[in-house]
Amino acid sequence: MEEKLRSGKPDYVLDLTGESCPEPQIEIVKKLNLMKVGEVLEVVSDEEPIDVTIPMICKTHGYPCLTLKEGSLYKTRILKNK
């Protein structure tokens, strides 16, 4: 599963750069609710707490995720697995 998150191309990209809480969390949950099982969402953000809040959202919903930091951006990939 981690390989799909790390090396695969995401099905959707949600750019939340410049957005502050709680808007990113709301947008992430909305998008995940519209996605099909097996699809990957990449969330891009420059808000530092996002590297903690997104994994918490994923854990609550049972979705695996992987966060990478690229410069000042955080990129989190989420696999909708159910």
From TrEMBL:
Pfam family, one: TusA
UniProt cross-references to InterPro entries, sorted A to Z: TusA-like, TusA-like_sf
Signal peptide annotation: none
SUPFAM superfamilies: SirA-like (SSF64307)
Top-level taxonomy: Archaea, Thermoproteota, Thermoprotei, Sulfolobales, Sulfolobaceae
Transmembrane segments: none
Protein name: SirA family protein
The UPF0033 domain, residue ranges: 14-38
